[in-house]
Automatic annotation (TrEMBL):
This is Coronin. Residues 5-69 form the DUF1899 domain. Belongs to the WD repeat coronin family. Keywords: Actin-binding, Coiled coil, Repeat, WD repeat. GO terms for molecular function: actin filament binding. It holds the Pfam family WD40. The gene is Coro2a. InterPro entries: Coronin (IPR015505), DUF1899 (IPR015048), WD40/YVTN_repeat-like_dom_sf (IPR015943), WD40_repeat_CS (IPR019775), WD40_repeat_dom_sf (IPR036322), WD40_rpt (IPR001680). WD repeats lie at residues 78-112, 128-170, 176-217. The keyword Cell cycle does not apply.
Length: 323
């Protein structure tokens, strides 16, 4: 009989989170009061972007990462949408390009100047008009430059090629219309050859975006999925959602077999959504509760038990979004 030790050696065993001091924070930022289930912020090495509260349209702020401290109340915004901004994402190939989508059924691409904004940016570089209803999610393709995916409340996912010269695009390269309800979450694998979606019909789908075909469809009854995430090139999917008893729940799936999860775990009875974020360099997974102050972190390993709980950051202040 071989003896297995109970503990695991991990260099991340004692990772702990710590809130930054006041002078390292961004103060007086008017964060949106919208209740849409999104991150509401996006960050890259140069900028932090935050969706803000504003009257009569949709706007977001772009603050240089080094510009900490109190924000001037008249600090310029990026505003050109006629409805609330629902999602913003930085271009992975260019730190000075950001995409935003909105309740006004459009997606806009913006060029951000290299210095502090002097006045509001109101004219987008490109405008994408294709969705019939509000657009809730956007995602850049991870390996093909200038390819953007947008998903709207018309249940369609549209693929756009931004390399064309026109400023207004109304013809997407492809439309994926395999969903019968609203898409709640989209995630690419590392090379962008597969797209995973979580839909309000409780199903997780793995799609080949080039062919437009659904390769896998899982409708596991006892896990109502909200967010889904490819774990880098581990060939696994991670999802957060709720159990039949309305407990918050996480699950791990094999991307080639979505019939039963490899692992399923109830976390707590809070009602806020759980946002998963994966760091493929360290194989660490962060699960952030919206509306509470919890960030749990796990380490992902290729062999069982796959998901190893490390620590938890707790704050008395509720979180609105994460980037």
């Amino acid at each position: 009989m071989s003896w297995h030790p109970q503990y695991r050696s991990s260099k991340f065993r004692h990772v702990y989170g710590k809130a930054a001091s006041k002078d390292k924070c961004y103060d007086c930022v008017p964060i949106t009061r919208n209740v849409h289930d999104n991150h509401f912020c996006a960050v890259n090495p140069s900028f932090i972007a935050v969706v803000t509260e504003c009257a009569g349209g949709g706007a977001f702020l772009v603050i240089p990462v080094k510009q900490t401290g109190k924000l001037d109340p008249h600090y310029p915004k990026v505003c050109g949408h006629k409805g609330n901004v629902l999602d913003i994402k930085w271009n992975p190939f260019n730190d000075f390009v950001i995409a935003s989508c909105s309740e006004d059924a459009t997606v806009k691409i913006w060029d951000i100047p290299n210095q502090l904004l002097k006045r509001n940016i109101t004219t987008p570089k490109k405008e994408l008009l294709g969705h019939a209803r509000r657009v809730g999610l956007i995602e850049w393709h991870p390996t093909a430059d200038n390819i953007l995916f947008s998903s709207g409340y018309d249940y369609k996912i549209m693929i756009w090629n931004l390399d064309v010269k026109d400023a207004i695009l109304s013809n997407p390269v492809k439309i994926l219309d395999g969903h019968k309800d609203v898409v709640l979450s989209m995630s690419f694998n590392t090379d962008g050859s597969l797209l995973a979606t979580a839909c309000r019909d409780r199903k997780i789908r793995v799609i080949d975006p080039r062919a437009g075909t659904v390769l896998q469809e899982g409708s596991y009854k006892s896990h109502k999925v909200n967010k889904v995430l490819f774990l880098g090139n581990m060939k696994k999917l991670f999802s957060t959602g709720t159990s039949c008893w309305n407990n918050r729940q996480i699950a791990l799936w094999d991307q080639n077999d979505l019939s039963v999860p490899l692992l399923e775990e109830d976390l707590d009875g809070s009602s806020g959504l759980l946002f998963p974020i994966y760091d493929s360099d360290t194989h660490m997974l962060y699960v952030v509760g919206k509306g509470d102050g919890n960030i749990r972190y796990y380490e992902i390993s290729p062999e069982k038990p796959y998901l190893n709980y490390l620590m938890e950051y707790r704050s008395p202040l509720p979180q609105k979004g994460i980037g």
